[in-house]
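== Sequence, structure tokens ==
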Amino acid sequence: MQGFPMGPGAKPAPANAPAGADPVKDGTDASFMADVIEASRNVPVIVDFWATWCGPCKTLGPLLEKAVRAAKGAVRMVKIDTDKNPAVAGQLRVQSIPTVYAFFQGRPVDGFQGALPESQVKQFVDRLVQMAGGAAGGPDLAQVLEEAKQLLEGGDPQQAAALYSAVMQEEPENAAAYAGLIRCLLAVDQTQEAEQMLAEAPPALAKAPELAAIRTQLDLKKQAAEAGPVGELQAKVARDPDDHQARYDLAMALYANGQREPAVEALLEIVKRDREWNEQAARKQLVKLFEAFGPTDKLTVMARRKLSSILFS
């Protein structure tokens, strides 16, 4: 990797996972993106669709909770009352309850309908635990990747790069580590080297979502550079708050200046005022920003909640 000291001989100490948190929680339509989709990037998440009037739900729910807690953090569970929260159940085409879905790395990977005996519930949870243990190099490498991510976000790209390099030594085709190295280059303004590394990605990694996110980030950077002066665009929006094009350009200008949260807020305001404007351009641009920030970024999680609140209101 040109121009950036990677420290390939580094021997990182894996971060300890947080202890004491209950892996079972109640969820809602509004919290689904954060509680399930985003959380499943790191650990499988079981979603139990139930209702208070459902007899089989009262049998299945406690069995699921018991098996999930026995897994000691290797899997999580979110309980959604479909009477109070019908939107996500409708989107997932839940026809009857209880219905159970399992999500991992942002997508559904398993599921079943109806009550099951305890032995089958345990087998279901065990499969998810084994799936997570065999992904992304196992739990230890996942912890190292998380530590590297925190270092990068905390302003230490050099040490983060050392950890990403250590992961690459163990798994040369680990997409998260390869993408992390590219982000380290971008963090120290070595854009040309980052673009070269992206272009030269091995075939096994070229189409990985992590690298697609970086391509989106670079595209946004080029688009933002053409947005215009922030001051002039702020004045235009102040004169006419319904000038959605001006607010859209302002969002990109703010993004170009490193003001990520104000940029996101400007796009959310467009969605709030007119979600269909320019073929949902603001919503689509928000999705690009989320992809560029990364699914577990605090701003991504916060903004997705706000966007869901607007769209489901």
User: Anything to note?
Assistant: The first helix runs from residue 32 to 38. The chain has 15 helices and five strands.
